[in-house]
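Problem 12. The chain below contains 221 residues. Write out its predicted structure in token notation.
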Amino acid sequence: MENTDLDAFVRGLEVAMKRTGWKAAPLSEASGMGTTAVRDLFRKKSSPKVSTAFALASTIGMTVDEIIRLGEGAPSLIGNFIPVIGEVGAGARVPLTDVHENNGGMFSVAAPSQLLRRAPASTFAAVIVSGDSMMPMYQPGDILFYSRATHEGIPDEDIGRPCVVEDATGMAWLKQVRTGDEPGLFHLISLNPNADTMHNQRIKWASRVIFALPEDMVERI
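Solution.
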């Protein structure tokens, strides 16, 4: 990015923070920086590193380009979109895309009204189903929405439900999660009887699927 783009990013970041309610210190910490990073950015009116811009944008739930557009005076889509951060394996083995390294996701989709009635769009993320182990409930290419994980392990109320799961090796799965044979272990169940179930797995986190849409029903932004 050119310096002019990064300057527009700083202006857009200030607009985005006002509209989403983020304060400087919490945003700095949530983005993996010191508590004064955002404040210093505004005070010095300096351009951030590209990696810093990516981290700040994704924490807010936007892409760098979207924040630059805000800084250039474009209409805001804040509150109306959800980033699709990558694929989730329903039989296929896929690594979890790190939203901080991927500029807010592969692309963004309009937030379904059903989700906005529950919570702000910034609290959700989405993934694309890869593989057929969760058929007939979920088809390859479906877009699944879930609450961004702010916990380790899995909440008790999500046990027994289809979940987006990151296992101990960093792979992302779509599975029904059940308690394993020993504490800290979980069975990752496939709904398709022809697909394998993963027994006694260690997981980093799991978050249940809240809403799903076929790919052709999703509005890309």
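Discussion. The two ends are 21 Å apart (CA to CA). Students who got a different answer should revisit the alignment rule from Section 12.3.
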